[in-house]
Structure of Pantothenate synthetase:
Amino acid sequence: MISKVATGVARTVGAARARVTEWRAERQRVALVPTMGALHDGHRALIDHARRQADRVVVSIFVNPKQFGPREDFGAYPRREGDDLDLLRAAGVDLLFAPPLEAMYPDGFATTVSIAGPLTTSLEGAHRPGHFDGVATVVAKLLNQIGPDLAFFGEKDWQQLQVIKQLVRDLDLPLEILTVPTVRDSEGLALSSRNAYLTPAQLITAQKLNRILQDVASKAAKGDIADARSAAPARLREAGFDSVDYVEIADAETMQPAPVASGRALRVLAAARIGTTRLIDNFPVELST
């Protein structure tokens, strides 16, 4: 069991870089786990993977306004740095980088990192215009600010993960992006900071999402892609979801809709709402070989 460590806290880029520079002088490998806080066991899994593969672990907490739309939950997004810091200490994190808004986007900030094409304009990109520009911009800044050897992201935000991989490839950023499987509750619901919005009754409905998507993935694996895709939204609404943004069976890398089971890796991705809470999830399509 990892004992609690004296997790340092950096509020400025200069302070974070100074700590990383010390570690670099000792030839230590540095991992970054970017988060928006409200940490849970899914984040803990990212940290645990990072600890196993790096000498030092930095976790960033920054609720990034640029990836929220005008009618989304930026103001309501849970913020609880005290509890988060307790988790980071228990997990053995070396440094929390928690910059204020003005440190990330000072007066005069005028740069946006934008990745063109279907990867960012389909699915989440279609329903949350500008979202991936905000993600790419803040991740590019964090990777530049910390300069890690490794950065860890979860599979729950699958499309975002592909966007970040594209960013790193296109800009020749000198680090490795590593992924961690989605952590789920006892009923299979993907852990998310937004799950805190759910009432007990809504939680029961939310836990049906993964079961329906697994069934969709199973049918798609048998070649029934069109039928599996078309039937899924009605199944979610029948299960108690108030609305469905999308259910898609797509190429796992490009996010292009899959017309047939062509042998390429496929993914079932979905976004649906219960009340005001928007949930996303995804599963691989296990194609037979």
